[in-house]
């Protein structure tokens, strides 16, 4: 584990001076029996509190407590929007002045659109400028951490008006800072500079991630701000943040910090991709960045993490004294995020279809990709398919000479392993499943049992991508991973975190199933896959099935599927029948449970559309 950041100790005289400064500044407000302030007294206290905690002392402990003081004080001021707004803009001015003093390009802090009196804010700039001339990156990191914690507090309080004030302030900060001037700071001189850089980057990336998460719900941003423009600014920062944090070689201060940065950056990129449509150039650029910084995660065998227990240490935030093995032992979170972002970028390219490259103004997303260097074959749909095909080739044998039965078994095993990577992470599970459904090439594709010889390379690519990501197959495997327990699906549907996305996934899958009923009935799995079913979900069977599972803490004893590589037609038919009956029982039991809750007005939202889709499913079950 890397060494801790050095924190210069205070001399006795410095300590006495700080205490005296705080006492002299705050004493008049603490001894007064009158708890109400005049406007001028209130403004004086705000100015004092915005200066005192942000002293340029490189002590993590002092800065941590000082930040907590500011967060607590912001909570106290929350009852008065105007006062709170003045306080927030004071912090933002301090932040921008501090960055201006340490960067190679000085700039004036933004006060346009900041609200309140412009003259008051200009006076703040004049007041703070001399006091912050000796600030360091350490101080900047402390202010950013404070703003992020205030944003976190407001999210819990659900105060939309105050959130909007803070989002406006952060937006102006992001737009105003000349980020290119920060390249020299993060050049990587080593030693304590690296540690200060890591502290700043960690807090800054966290702030951006929280900001992107919150801005999606923001309505009524300042008239001079455009939500998409601000998000595009952050998108343009992504390559810099990756380089500043992980360096070109993927090296960082130490392994734990590198993993932490990787996790936070992937979260930021995923949130950005969900907030704003990414254009062709950005998608291609991000795929290149994923290959440059996360190639090992993309091609790490999925089976390496399938049998690991979900210990607390699996968190990317864990700091450990173990050797480099920690990185490979606990990379499940990072692999899950990297693969999701890779698939999202690739599928987005595929779904662009024949869209031509768009020319963006300086106010929108830009990319450093050389457009002329991108071949026509790599544009849009072809580029996305080739990316997916190359990735699949690293995990599954896609040689056209491989026997059909062996190819089928390996591809199903891969699909199940990929699905299993996400099934215990509810926050991303249905985003992942819906992402797979977005692949147009997968929908309603029908293939003969014996593989046809492709006419060209692109047809070969399309075959593999469509075969492995077939939505009916993935839906069957998803239900199997849940042990066909309709109660698990019901839990997902009524959860405030997964309810809407789970309902959307079920609606879309049921439509595909009902339109391709024969394919749904005939699906089956063979071989070792039957032993990979998770033992961590509820181990009961749906009400309509005769198969029973006794509660157990050990591995689940599922319906025995043949481990033989050769099987006769009758056994194949029985496997098909078993999987169909289990899936049918699960979904019909789900229908019954949703109906019962809906009749009692206990379902959290109107499930009538879902019930109609399940009704159609039931009709097909009875018909066949």
Q: How would you sum up this structure, described in words?
A:
- With 624 residues, the protein is mainly alpha-helical.
- The chain folds into three domains: 12-186 and 196-276, no CATH class; 286-303 and 332-355 and 376-443 and 458-469, no CATH class; 471-532 and 568-623.
- 62% of the residues lie in helices and 0% in strands.
- The protein has helices spanning 12-30, 39-51, 60-77, 81-102, 118-131, 137-157, 160-176, 192-215, 227-246, 255-275, 280-299, 303-306, 325-329, 332-352, 380-393, 404-420, 426-437, 457-468, 471-481, 486-494, 499-515, 517-522, 569-599, 608-623.
- Residues 1-10, 304-329, 353-377, 441-455 and 531-569 have low confidence and may be disordered.
- This is Protein Lines C-terminal domain-containing protein.
- Pfam families: LINES_C, LINES_N.
């Amino acid at each position: 584990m890397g060494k801790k950041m050095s924190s210069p100790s205070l001399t006795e005289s410095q300590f006495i001076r700080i205490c005296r400064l705080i006492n002299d500044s705050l004493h008049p407000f603490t001894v007064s029996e009158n708890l109400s302030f005049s406007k001028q007294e209130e403004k004086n206290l705000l100015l004092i509190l915005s200066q005192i905690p942000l002293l340029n002392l490189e002590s993590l402990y002092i800065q941590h407590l000082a930040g907590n003081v500011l967060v607590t004080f912001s909570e106290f001021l929350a009852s008065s929007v105007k006062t709170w707004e003045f306080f927030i803009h004071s912090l933002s001015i301090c932040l921008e002045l501090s960055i201006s003093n340490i960067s190679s390009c000085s700039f004036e802090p933004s006060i346009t659109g900041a609200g309140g009196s412009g003259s008051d804010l200009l006076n703040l700039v004049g007041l703070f400028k001399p006091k912050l001339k000796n600030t360091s990156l350490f101080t900047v990191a402390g202010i950013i951490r404070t703003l992020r914690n205030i944003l976190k507090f407001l999210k819990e309080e659900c105060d939309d008006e105050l959130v909007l004030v803070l989002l406006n302030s952060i937006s102006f900060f992001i737009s105003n800072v000349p980020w290119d001037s920060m390249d020299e700071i993060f050049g990587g001189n080593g030693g304590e500079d690296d540690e200060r850089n890591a502290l700043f980057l960690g807090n800054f990336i966290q702030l951006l991630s929280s900001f992107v998460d919150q801005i999606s719900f923001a309505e009524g941003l300042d008239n001079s701000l455009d939500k998409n423009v601000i998000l595009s600014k952050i998108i343009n920062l992504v390559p810099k943040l990756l380089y500043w944090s992980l360096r070109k070689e993927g090296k960082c201060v130490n392994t734990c910090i590198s993993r932490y940065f990787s996790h936070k950056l992937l979260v930021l990129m995923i949130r950005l991709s969900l907030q704003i449509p990414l254009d062709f150039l950005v998608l291609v650029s991000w795929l290149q960045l994923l290959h440059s910084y996360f190639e090992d995660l993309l091609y790490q065998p999925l089976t390496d993490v399938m049998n690991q227990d979900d210990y607390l240490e699996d968190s990317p935030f864990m700091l450990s004294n173990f050797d480099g093995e920690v990185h490979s032992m606990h990379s499940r979170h990072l692999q899950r995020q990297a693969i999701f972002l890779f698939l999202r970028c690739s599928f987005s390219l595929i779904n662009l279809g024949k869209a031509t490259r768009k020319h963006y103004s300086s106010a929108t997303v830009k990319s450093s990709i050389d457009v002329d260097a991108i071949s026509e074959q790599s544009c849009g749909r072809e580029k996305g398919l080739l990316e997916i095909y190359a990735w699949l080739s690293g995990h599954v044998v896609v040689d056209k000479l491989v026997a059909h039965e062996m190819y089928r078994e390996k591809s199903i095993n891969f699909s199940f392993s990929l699905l299993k990577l996400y099934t215990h992470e509810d926050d991303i599970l249905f985003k992942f499943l819906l992402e797979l459904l977005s692949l147009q090439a997968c929908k309603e594709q029908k293939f003969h049992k014996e593989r046809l010889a492709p006419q060209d390379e692109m047809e070969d690519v399309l075959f593999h991508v469509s075969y492995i990501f077939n939505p009916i197959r993935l839906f069957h495997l998803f239900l199997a991973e849940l042990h066909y327990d309709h109660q698990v699906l019901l839990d997902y549907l009524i959860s405030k975190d997964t309810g809407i996305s789970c309902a959307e996934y079920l609606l879309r899958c049921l439509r595909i199933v009902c339109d391709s009923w024969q394919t749904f009935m005939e699906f089956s799995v063979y071989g070792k896959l039957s032993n990979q079913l998770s033992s961590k979900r509820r181990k009961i069977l749906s009400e309509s099935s005769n198969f029973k599972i006794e509660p157990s803490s050990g591995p689940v004893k599922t319906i025995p599927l043949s481990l033989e590589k050769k099987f006769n037609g009758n056994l194949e038919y029985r496997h098909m029948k078993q999987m169909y009956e289990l899936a049918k029982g699960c979904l019909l039991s789900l229908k019954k449970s949703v109906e019962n809750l809906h009749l009692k007005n206990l379902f959290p939202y109107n499930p009538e559309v879902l019930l109609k889709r399940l009704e159609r499913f039931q009709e097909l079950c009875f018909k066949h």
